[in-house]
Amino acid sequence: MNIRDLEYLVALSEHRHFRKAAEACFVSQPTLSGQIRKLETELGVSLLERTSRKVLFTDVGLSLVTQARKVLHEVKVLAEMASQQGESMAGPLHVGFIPTVGPYLLPLIIPALKAAFPQLELYLHEAQTQVLVQQLEEGKLDCIILAAVKESEHFKELSLYHEPMVLAVPEGHPWADRNELPMQELNGHTLLMLGDGHCLRDQAMGFCFAAGAKEDGSFKATSLETLRNMVAAGSGITLLPKLATPHTAKRDGVCYLKACDPEPSRLITLAYRPGSPLKGRYEQLAEQIRRSISLHLDS
């Protein structure tokens, strides 16, 4: 038995398909299948039900998958501890981002990160909050950058910045020439929102409902860019995070107003697993992001 065998077992449990699991592990299907059989022989148990066309695990197999995940997690911690013997900001680092942060934050911070930490190998992964949290728990990601939500509370979190939300309205809208809008004026109005799974949706809806506004139930956007285009087309109004808006008050058929009294905002954090020996690395990364982003939010 070796660590690679456990990786094959976990991959098969995730994909429930020999070919897909083999591709995820960058080996041939016969290699993965043979190693699973070898593992069964060494352990003296059946991990899979061979009579089904589907990949079905036995009860013992499911228990061993759970234990294999724990072993792989500890192996990753061991590797992290060893990496501290070298330069702390060198080597690979897998960072996850939510879709409403990554495309707008990364262009602002990547040049500064490359200049500050030239030996750091960044691997960037975009997914919704629920997926990122799971991947961080499983050790597939080193840290994640997301809006602070209940699902991330059990991780260690470093605050990066508070990001205001900006009201976006079409050109020609009665509010288009205003610089700011008190939230209470949204009372009775309908706003366009992101679809389920986006944490920004829940956060924006909280502010809107408190102001007496409601959601447009006929449409749910898959991305912020879809929301922006819907506004430009005159289909409604919405709240967008500030980093996703241009520096000008009007652009491409959309007018951007500061929302106030209260100003809606969200806290963006960097989260990592408690007890990680790479705490110092994450703290340096967070500090550099804070420096890079402060000027953009103040402008």
Sum this structure up briefly.
42% of the residues lie in helices and 24% in strands.
Layout: helices, strands, pairs:
Layout: H1 3-15, H2 18-25, H3 29-43, H4 59-83, E1 91-97, H5 102-116, E2 120-126, H6 129-137, E3 143-147, E4 156-170, E5 180-182, E6 190-194, H7 199-211, E7 214-221, H8 224-232, E8 238-241, E9 250-251, E10 254-260, E11 265-272, H9 279-298
Parallel strand pairs: 1-2, 1-3, 5-10, 6-7
Antiparallel strand pairs: 3-11, 4-8, 4-10, 4-11, 9-10
Helix pairs in contact: 1-2, 1-4, 2-3, 5-9
Outline the structure in words.
By secondary structure, the protein is α/β, with parallel strands linked by helices. Helices cover 42% and strands 24% of the residues. It has helices at residues 3-15, 18-25, 29-43, 59-83, 102-116, 129-137, 199-211, 224-232, 279-298; strands at 91-97, 120-126, 143-147, 156-170, 180-182, 190-194, 214-221, 238-241, 250-251, 254-260, 265-272. Strands 1, 2, 3, 4, 5, 8, 9, 10 and 11 form a nine-stranded mixed β-sheet that branches. It has a two-stranded parallel ribbon with strand order 6-7. α1 (3-15) packs across α2 (18-25), α1 (3-15) packs across α4 and α2 crosses α3. The radius of gyration is 23 Å and the shape is elongated. The model has no long low-confidence stretch (mean pLDDT 90).
